[in-house]
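Could someone model S-adenosylmethionine with this protein?
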Amino acid sequence: MKRETFSSPSDSIKAKSEDLPLTDKFGRPITDLRISITDRCNYKCVYCRTGNEGALYGDLPFEDYLRMTRVLVGMGVNKIRLTGGEPLLRKGVVEFVRELAQLRAPNGVRVRNEDPLDIALTTNGHLLADLAQPLKAAGLTRVTVSMDAVDPDRFTRITRVPGGYDHVLAGIRAARRAGLWPLKVNCVLMRGFNEDQIIPFGMFAREEGVTVRFIEFMPLEEGRTWSPNTVVTLDEILTRMAEYRPLVEIPHARSETARRYRFDDGVGEIGIIAPVSHPFCGHCSRIRITSDGKIRTCLVSVWDHDLHAQMRGGASDGELADFIRGVIQKKEERHHIGEPDFVPASRTMVHIGG
Ligand code: SAM
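Reply:
Sure, complex below.
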């Protein structure tokens, strides 16, 4: 498997990092925050959970996430993504988005004061049909919907929830009508479950006008069933899709996780997120806050950093910022997925937020 090396960060990252307030020790600017607002989920997708309910770490009042976010925005974070668990299960999510949309970076950080924050949401889409318009009105910028098959029966086999497919399709269409654009549909490919959905998803992207993004399966599932053989890789996706129509790569931003492609006739966009076969850790700009208020510096970290404990202990905003700066210096250089020395993450995806 190909692996990037980044023991010496590129000059462009170094040059940019000088005027950024929050930068890790490898010169990566940290501008992208993902907050899990609950670890409850109404689906039990095979690549994420077992069929059982599983343990929960719990969640925090929205005002606590808001304070954490305000401190981070003051340090240069300009992209926020709400995730979970299933974030739309959380009552009050629309009001929370409205409050987030009011946040502004103070003078002195690189983010231009007048720029609105980018506030995105990752959801399974089950409850999106009724919430898309209110979320847009509250200030949500974009939405990504997870959908792992375009065939309703297969969808049920993967999510373990009968009848979900129609809800999700309705959610995707409502998001488009609400102007939550660009609209992305994420599909995790897991061998034996849905690799035959690659071409149908290509057709879906063209017909629905959405960007379909295939994600390589990562060892973050509760059941610990991952092995290299279960991963449907970027190269395999391109080869399979070429049997339908060839894809042509188009430019993507350095910090973007997905490689971007268009079909050769210019209609329909496909993204491929390939953390296993083509890692992109060298450009990682993300940190995560779990639903119980812990910072995770990498999806597959073996430890968390308890930001909420600092708050409970009475830390001022300045002390929280110092704590965060210290944590950022511990951000891992890269992941070791697929290597003999790989140690599984201390939490699984449903407890981190993707
Ligand atoms: N419930 C929401 C949803 O379904 O999108 C948000 C949480 S979910 C954990 C976030 C993303 O992580 C989804 O796109 C999901 O497909 C992806 N995901 C979950 N487990 C994964 C795994 N083991 N490998 C790769 N992606 C995974």
